Amino acid sequence: MNLNIKNEKLNRWIKEVSELCQPDSIYICNGSKEEYNQMIELLIKNGGAIPLKKRPNSYLFRSDPSDVARVEDRTFISTSSKEEAGPTNNWLGPAELKKTMLGLYKGCMKGRTMYVIPFSMGPIGSPISKIGIEISDSPYVVVNMHIMTRVSSRVLELLGENGEFIPCLHSIGAPLAHGQKDAQWPCAPIDKKYISHFPEENLIWSYGSGYGGNALLGKKCLALRIASVMARREGWLAEHMLILRLTNPEGRQYHIAAAFPSACGKTNLAMMMPSIPGWKCECIGDDIAWMKIGADGRLYSINPENGFFGVAPGTSYSTNPMAMDTLKGNVIFTNCALTDDGDVWWEGMDGDEPVHAIDWKGRDWTPESVHEAAHPNARFTAPASQCPVICKDWEKPEGVPIDIIIFGGRRSEVVPLVYEAYNWDHGVFLGATAASETTAANIGAVGFLRYDPFAMKPFCGYNMGDYFQHWLDMGGKLGNKAPRIFYVNWFRKNSDGKFLWPGFSDNSRVLKWMCQRIDGKAGAQETPIGLVPDKEGIDLNGLDIPPDNMRELMMVNTDEWKAEIPNIEKHFSIFGSRLPERLKLQLKEFIRRLG
Ligand code: GTP
Ligand code: SPV
Ligand code: MN
């Protein structure tokens, strides 16, 4: 077998994996357009790709109903000691987990092609970038990786003979017997799915799922779970954050990074069209930020991804016009509905509902149907370069200097629209105690409140107590050059269950207050939870919002917050001795402020 690869470690790995998984053939990807088109042809023929008449070079896929989102219950951090993975991760020891998975991998690619996908997270050749090689038996994964990462034969050239890469092994776990007809979306049953990480060896093994973060291993597996471990070791941050540039009418630029849990508004905020005159927002990234301290002592951030894997439902010209314009062509849609004229549709799109469509399960759908037309976690995969407001500096290898960090979540109650941390440690406390109602981005119950520190509960590759400490340490290194930290909640509801805040483009009003805060141009009031805007603090010009709504949105109810304390204490207690002293002190001070 001569694959013409110079890297010895890679050659050895490909040989090992092919002997184990026994594919019919091996294909080394080069990342070209021709290759993309070839894969699409193949997927149209026998992989369920439906070409969309209304959108050039765009295709719809329908997944198996059991394989529609990340599976946190089947995601593992496999370190030698359970303590290292920490209380927020599923743990299995490497020996046991590898034994089980080797059993599953044995012969799992029979009847299929094994694709070797060389990719770079971050611009190819940038000192911040990391090289990964994904081996997968899914052509759907290949085309998605083409969009989401930088797939190229240049990556192999860069690797040379001895270069380092992160091996990412993926199989859908559905071997084909001779002559067996393939399923439209082959995958393994839920109890056979494993999304495994071996951070001590920088190794990823995924089995049984073809969907999103379970299968596109550059994203959550590499760029967050493995990268977070590397980041801690090397003194930087790998975060579940969007990055945007906001420019005020005077031309001053602010760079903002914001961590919200899955399906809580990152993509929307990242490419928002400000409703306040003269302000401009440009997108740098919508899901992941790698942040390092630069030579000038400030925190610089890059987006390691190349595309958006965004939530479709709710996306419309009225909520997120820049996403809609990004989706005009060259897009992969998964689990959206198909209209009779050959376009995609999802709940919340502009205009009238179609009178008839085919739903994400392939069934007839009409507005009378009881089921949704699109799955709530239906997604689009689109090149970031197609976003009309992509920032010209989005691929700058050194990144952009971050002025503001935002944490947040989906809370129908208690948490006000916005508040500012008193200082870095208090900001870390806000990140560490972030709680949010669960969404369809993970398989499991939707709408229950859980702690999701830094929006990283599903994505931190090590003990989260140590992760908190790492954030505190980063603050120490940044000193007075540290970004200011804020907390937001776009999702507070009134007693009728309606959102109090219009959100989307009007979130610019909240960002404006933050910018004015860092320029010393806006006042704030001290409350037990942090600094909240003065009465005139948030620019509401041109916004028709009842004063009562504003009052409810901004309300800090001491009794409600006191009721949170036992929950925070319980949440903190799981970290035992790994909970940093400085966070214990923050909690103590918070309790004191609540009186
Ligand atoms: P992941 O890709 O899973 O990490 O999600 P995300 O954080 O990028 O969330 P996204 O921006 O895709 O938003 C998820 C859902 O929340 C969509 O249905 C949006 O329409 C909705 N949403 C986003 N921003 C707002 C907002 O400001 N207000 C309200 N009410 N809904 C919002
Ligand atoms: C998320 O769940 O935060 C996502 C989607 O961004 S996935 O890539 O499937 O993880
Ligand atoms: Mn995400």
Q: What are the key terms here?
A:
16 helices, Phosphoenolpyruvate Carboxykinase, domain 3, eight-stranded mixed sheet, globular, 28% helix, 595 residues, binds sulfopyruvate, binds manganese (II) ion, 3 domains
Describe the fold and architecture.
The chain is α+β, with helices and mostly antiparallel strands and 595 residues long. It folds into three domains: 8-30 and 70-234, Phosphoenolpyruvate Carboxykinase, domain 1, CATH 3.40.449; 238-303 and 394-594, Phosphoenolpyruvate Carboxykinase, domain 3; 308-386, Phosphoenolpyruvate Carboxykinase, domain 2 (Beta Complex). The chain is built from 16 helices and 31 strands. Helix 2 packs antiparallel against helix 5. The radius of gyration is 24 Å and the shape is globular. Manganese (II) ion binds at residues 240, 262, 287.
